[in-house]
Amino acid sequence: MVAVVGNSGIRLMPTTEARARKLLKSGRAVIHKHVPFTIRLLDRETGKTQPVEYKTDTGYEHVGVSICSEKHEYVSAQYDLLHDETEKHNDCRKYRRARRNRRRYRAPRFDNRRASKKSGWLAPSIRNRMETQVKLFLMYTQVYPITNAVFEMGKFDTQLLKAIAEGRTAPQGVDYQHGERYLSETLRQAVFSRDGYTCRICGRGISDHAILHEHHIGYWKGDRTDRMANLMTVCEKCHTPGNHKPSGKLYGLDPKLPAFKGATFMTMVRWQMYGILREIAEDIDIHITYGAMTKLKRQDLHIRKSHVNDAYATGTFHPAHRADTLYRRKRRRNNRVLEKFYDAKLIDIRDGKKKPGSSLGCNRTNRREPRMSDKNECIFRGPKVSAGKRVIRRTHYHIQPGTILQAGRQRHLAKGVHCGGSRVILDNGKSVAIHTVKVVSYPGAWIAVSP
User: Phi/psi of residue 436, each to 5°?
Assistant: First the structure.
């Protein structure tokens, strides 16, 4: 279905794709917006509208959206948010600190940012996820005559969820105060005390004069959270760069408990998000529902569980005519990593193969640690094949991955550019000269993905 607005911008009822094409071809309408695709009628200002309901399954990583009237579902979409938002913010903070260290000395400011946090402050990554879902709501309310909105935003007890996952009894009373870090001054002390001050890989402990480290169990799949379930005690002989690689002892391990990021996120932002929605959409009735109610309704409708179906199951309207589901993933439009390092290549004298210098290192994670004689592989370094180098990106190319290009009679998606920006790689794997293609449209914040 295609959204429709009048010649003065009043939101009208959506129409079919076939009728929208006829209106555009006859000159009675023009394109008003591309995302979501909307046409503007030139010969009509107002029209009759029916109650339209905006329903969404809010989430930490995935958002389901369903817009329905009594007889039709106009929008069925799933939006996948950025999964590395926290790491990118950490990179920005690292680059900012390095940039400031290169400048002259500046006296401390009078207002400490950390001490001046206002009520309702949220971490940048949490605030970004909340604001993204608010922006999705605003995007559709600008072109659809929405009269009612339902948001699934529940409150979760993370302590109870952890107890269920571990098979323990539900916490009661003082159990909420005596958590995993009770009587421990630091997180490091709590982890070591839980593991008995022994390495969980080889069993060496402080009685064996072992140097203990905190290890993030799920680092290999991007889980670097500092929760107790994701930390383990390892000694200096096991906590080596080689063991962090796919063939090492530390690679592929999974925490015993999953991360409850989604539950924590929704508990933090639900009332603040509800207040923002009430403020920006005064003419729309905003309602909150919970996952238990959604589950019962979804079972009554006999539809499988998905983010889109959860959104469809909420609210009042559940029409039999459903729209095709669109899958969109948020795209990062700015790559702030300007420098890349290419490791040196050396010959391993044991087998004569060419290997990077990182695989033939001393296997220590800190320069203050002594080199271990049984783990030091620097002695196997042979002749150097190629030296290491740093490459700094100094040029910004206007053709980015996801750009739609016209190459001859066909359209393709750009995968990237190479050869100093003189050639572009298409989605079919071919490389063509950049002057032989024409830019049709640049990618926006959301790109289409397959389910």
Answer: -95, 0
